């Protein structure tokens, strides 16, 4: 039974992985099914942390996870049919299909609501991610998406007519909308209908017979329009009208929306993207609702927002429109019909000429010319947004990247600082990464002068605002030299390194890298350094690392509990909150840390934090107080049992536990 409990999280992970492998949903349900699959994939980190936890899973939680497993199984079957089932059936019976979809999502919501997350040894970030999934399920309740009325009416018009009266215009629309334009598509649809016949025991219902007749009409039309189309045995791509190519499998795939074009809150294509103070982009209506609900943090990174200004992301809006047009999708309606090309700089011709002259110097073989040109570009990029756009448009980024490995330290410093200034423009971030800048920036971080190293760290922070860049930067070995700068740098260097490390460690895979780079001992030293001025940054990073098993172990080994108790008692509101967050993770499954904190007098400060702290601080303090209470009760019970044993008992004495003498402390 115990083995089954431990195997349960892994089976949940495998089910979600199977769901993630399903693709190519039928066009009539594509939006809903893609959204459902994405939401379910967000649950994987929770299952992984439950699997890796050393704490026992409570029986009530096991039952809830079993219910969730059943719900995921239902979702998997639903999604598989949406990918492999008959396209005609899914379109005609869309209402029935969508009713089933809502039943499954309701089942998933009930299962997720039944889990006691406080009883699980999982990080706050994961809890908040699950809460986001739950809120999306709740928002989707009762939401009715408008079906393609024209498609449905076209299907019905043929469904109830003979072959002779079929309108070619209607058949063309159906073949295109249902993506039945190649012999492979038609063959797969025929097989899907045959499977439905087999499921009825060989006695097909009238609806299946009618769908088979409808498929024959579409097939006849497609073959008439494309007389040279060969049978399914053909190995090469089949050219269709308009020069479109269908792969050997015959699947004419609908484009997948890039993740960067989706709002992190709604997971839908953004219509009016705006940037918040952390650099993340959201759909305006979604982030406005988030802010109106009283939240003061960035939903994606959980960083505190320094202000509530929403800056329109014109560059991303333009990219979304271009992508839609390139893929034959109607661009989302925007607040304004004007399409100012904001990625084009307003620099004058004279300024552009100056930039071109500087670029020519960058490509010259003269070290002096390269040094002076890189320095001037550095200053120009710092001056204003128009310059940053114009410099990037002129092709400066690859040239600056090439100078990161120059032996001339001053040129190297100018180049990395110019890239830092250019990265302020959101559109330039992608261009810098695409130019292969990360290895060069890491090289400067390791080998450059102190100012160059500081600016390299700041550049990595700026680039890591984009989530996918966090992965790239971590993979190229940036974290060890950032850890070194955090330990050995100037005050400014330490700040730059800390902000970069904090941002990078939001990605789970970078947390282990940071711990293995020796960040934890450095952070503990910064916490206790008199007048060091790094307490805020150190605690913020420790709070993120403590949610990782390696981070938790390293912080525990660094004897952090006395320092954390001191901060909970006397620190700033934000530092008290982070110190409590670290202590929650340390005490999860480790009674030694609980006992140590109790001996150090943490109860009083925790009570005060639970009453007067930040909202997150109150939650952490309450969680710790509950654990302390359970721990003390266990110790009292153990002591009472010991005292109740007869003094003359001759059996072998029970082994004493190291925490038994702490029952009354």
From TrEMBL:
InterPro entries xrefs: Adaptor_Cbl_N_dom_sf, ARM-like, ARM-type_fold, ARM_PUB, Armadillo, MLKL-like_MCAfunc, PUB12-19-like_N, RING-Ubox_PUB
Keyword ATP-binding attached: no
A GO molecular-function descriptor: ubiquitin protein ligase activity
Swiss-Prot/TrEMBL GO biological process terms: cell surface receptor signaling pathway; protein ubiquitination
Region (Disordered), start-end ranges: 630-665
Function: Functions as an E3 ubiquitin ligase.
Record's protein name: RING-type E3 ubiquitin transferase
């Amino acid at each position: 039974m115990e083995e089954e409990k431990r195997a349960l999280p892994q089976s949940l992970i495998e089910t979600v992985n199977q769901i993630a492998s399903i693709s190519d949903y039928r066009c009539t349900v594509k939006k809903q099914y893609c959204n459902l699959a994405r939401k379910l994939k967000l649950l994987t980190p929770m299952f992984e942390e439950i699997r890796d936890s050393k704490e026992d899973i409570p029986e009530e939680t096991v039952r809830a996870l079993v219910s969730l497993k059943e719900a995921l199984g239902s979702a998997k079957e639903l999604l598989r049919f949406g990918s492999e089932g008959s396209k005609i059936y899914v379109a005609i019976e869309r209402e029935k299909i969508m009713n089933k979809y809502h039943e499954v999502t309701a089942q998933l919501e009930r299962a997720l609501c039944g889990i006691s997350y406080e009883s699980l040894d999982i990080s706050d970030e994961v809890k908040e991610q699950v809460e986001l999934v739950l809120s999306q399920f709740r928002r989707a309740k009762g939401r009715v998406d408008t079906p393609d009325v024209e498609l449905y009416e076209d299907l019905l018009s043929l469904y109830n007519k003979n072959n002779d009266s079929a309108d070619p215009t209607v058949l063309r629309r159906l073949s295109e909308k249902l993506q039945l334009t190649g012999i492979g598509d038609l063959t797969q649809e025929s097989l899907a209908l045959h499977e439905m016949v087999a499921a009825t025991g060989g006695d097909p219902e009238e609806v299946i017979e009618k769908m088979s007749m409808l498929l024959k009409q579409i097939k006849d039309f497609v073959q008439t329009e494309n007389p040279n189309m060969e049978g399914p045995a053909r190995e090469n791509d089949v050219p269709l009208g308009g020069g479109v190519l269908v792969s050997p499998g015959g699947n004419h795939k609908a484009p997948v929306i890039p993740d960067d074009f989706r709002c992190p809150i709604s997971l839908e294509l953004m219509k009016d993207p705006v940037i918040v103070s952390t650099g993340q982009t959201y759909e305006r209506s979604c982030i406005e609702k988030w802010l109106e609900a009283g939240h003061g943090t960035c939903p994606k990174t959980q960083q505190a927002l320094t202000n509530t200004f929403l800056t329109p992301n014109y560059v991303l809006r333009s990219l979304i429109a271009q992508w839609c047009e390139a893929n034959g999708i109607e661009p989302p309606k925007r607040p304004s019909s004007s399409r100012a090309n904001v990625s084009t700089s307003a620099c004058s011709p004279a300024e552009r000429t100056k930039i071109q002259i500087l670029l020519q110097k960058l490509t010259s073989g003269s070290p002096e010319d390269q040094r002076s040109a890189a320095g001037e570009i550095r200053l120009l990029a710092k001056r204003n947004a128009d310059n940053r756009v114009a410099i990037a448009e002129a092709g400066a980024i690859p040239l600056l990247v090439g100078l990161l490995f120059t032996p001339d330290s001053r040129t190297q410093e100018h180049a990395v600082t110019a890239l830092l200034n250019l990265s302020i423009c959101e559109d330039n971030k992608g261009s810098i990464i695409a130019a292969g800048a990360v290895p060069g920036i890491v090289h400067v971080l390791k080998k450059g002068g102190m100012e160059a190293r500081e600016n390299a760290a700041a550049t990595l922070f700026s680039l890591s605002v984009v989530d996918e860049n966090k992965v790239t930067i971590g993979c190229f070995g940036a974290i060890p030299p950032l850890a070194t700068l955090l330990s050995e740098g100037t005050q400014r260097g330490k700040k730059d390194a800390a902000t970069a490390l904090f941002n990078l460690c939001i990605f789970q895979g970078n947390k282990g890298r940071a711990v293995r780079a020796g960040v934890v001992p450095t952070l503990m030293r910064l916490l206790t350094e008199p007048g060091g001025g790094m307490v805020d940054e150190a605690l913020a990073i420790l709070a993120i690392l403590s949610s990782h098993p390696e981070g938790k172990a390293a912080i525990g080994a660094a004897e952090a509990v006395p320092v954390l108790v001191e901060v909970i008692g006397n620190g700033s509101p934000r530092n008290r909150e982070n110190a409590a967050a670290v202590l929650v993770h340390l005490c999860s499954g480790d009674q030694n840390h609980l006992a140590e904190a109790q001996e150090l007098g943490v109860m009083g400060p925790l009570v005060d934090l639970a009453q007067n702290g930040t909202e997150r601080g109150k939650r952490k303090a309450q969680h710790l107080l509950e654990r302390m209470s359970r721990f003390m009760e266990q110790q009292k019970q153990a002591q009472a049992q010991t005292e109740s044993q007869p003094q003359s008992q001759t059996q072998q004495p029970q082994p004493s536990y190291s925490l038994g003498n702490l029952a009354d402390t």
